[in-house]
Amino acid sequence: MKVLVTGANGYLGQGIVKHLLDNGHAVIATGRKLDRVDGRAQKIACDLFSVEEPYNYFDKPDILLHLAWRDGFVHYSDAHINDLPKHYALISAFAKSDIMTIVGMGSMHEIGFFEGSIKEETPCNPITPYGISKNGLRQLTQMLCKQTNKKFMWLRGYYIVGNTQYGSSIFSKITSAEAEGKSEFPFTLGQNQFDFIDYENFCEQVARAVVQDEVLGVINICSGHPEKLADRVERFIKENGYQIKLKYGAFPDRPYDSKAVWGDGQKIEEIMKKV
């Protein structure tokens, strides 16, 4: 398969591109910068939203994996709302082309406040501009794919654990603080339970999902079970041999975070069993 990956230079894109290439697929990587992208990929640096005929411009890919997104960890950024029409126009252009499959990267923040296992049919009531925009693009992409008879996947991501300094997650911030020689890291009480998935597992799940065409629709990219934030962070510190200590109670929990939420892993487990 020939897969076009937008946002390929980002935290997720780098790993997903590598796993796609390792699995024998051709990758066209695009973004404003591509300095962190695997050298085996075909690289096309550009302003994604300024391309008039993206299907032809990007060498007629079989699959679009749309990762590009500004301010993903800044949930109240105006960029989410301002960019939504641009994302829609891009997806619409691909839907009208001869591409086979359109895949979007979603987020569990589309769901809003919820406790329990998130399934494909779980109602979405997002409460941040980030969640609202992601959910809106999911609905619009699904509509466009139905109208143009394209295969549709929406990969709903959960909490990714990785030790790179490039990301904006708590794990990346702890890694940066450790590298700076800090002895303490300000933290919440860490009692909320989330679905944590290691970075490499996340990238492999995405890479396997996008190139198959039997399991479609909303697919949770997840571990399938909850774990306390404090427990996972403490384990992360131990796994990496860090010396930094958590300063519990320095920050309050975010009011829109659920006490316990995790993804239903049935669909991704079905895909992974076919490997």
What oligomeric state best describes the polypeptide chains here? single chain
Strand order, sheet with most strands? 3-2-1-4-5-7-12
Gap from first CA to last CA: 16 Å
Q: Into which percent range does the helicity of residues fall? A: 25-40%
Could you say what the CATH topology of the largest domain is called?
Answer: Rossmann fold
Number of domains: 2
Broad shape? globular
Strand portion: 15-25%
Rg is 18 Å
The biggest beta sheet, please?
7 strands, parallel
SSE order = EHEEHEHEEHEEHEEEHEEHEEH
Q: By helix and strand content, what is the structural category?
A: alpha/beta
Number of helices: 8
CATH architecture name of the largest domain: 3-Layer(aba) Sandwich
> What is the CATH superfamily of the largest domain?
NAD(P)-binding Rossmann-like Domain
The parts where pLDDT drops under 50 for at least 5 residues are none
**CATH class annotation of the largest domain:** Alpha Beta
Question: What is the fold's blueprint, element by element?
Answer:
Elements: E1 2-6, H1 11-22, E2 26-31, E3 42-45, H2 54-57, E4 63-66, H3 79-95, E5 101-107, E6 116-118, H4 129-148, E7 151-157, E8 159-161, H5 170-179, E9 184-186, E10 193-194, E11 196-198, H6 199-210, E12 217-221, E13 227-228, H7 229-239, E14 245-247, E15 261-263, H8 266-273
What does this entry look like structurally?
The structure is a single chain. With 275 residues, the chain is an alpha/beta fold. It folds into 2 domains: 2-159 and 196-225 and 263-273, Rossmann fold; 163-194 and 226-247, no CATH class. The protein contains 8 helices and 15 strands. The strands form 5 sheets. It has a 7-stranded parallel β-sheet, sandwiched between helices. α1 (11-22) crosses α6 (199-210) and α3 runs parallel beside α4 (129-148). It is globular and about 55 Å long. The mean pLDDT is 95.
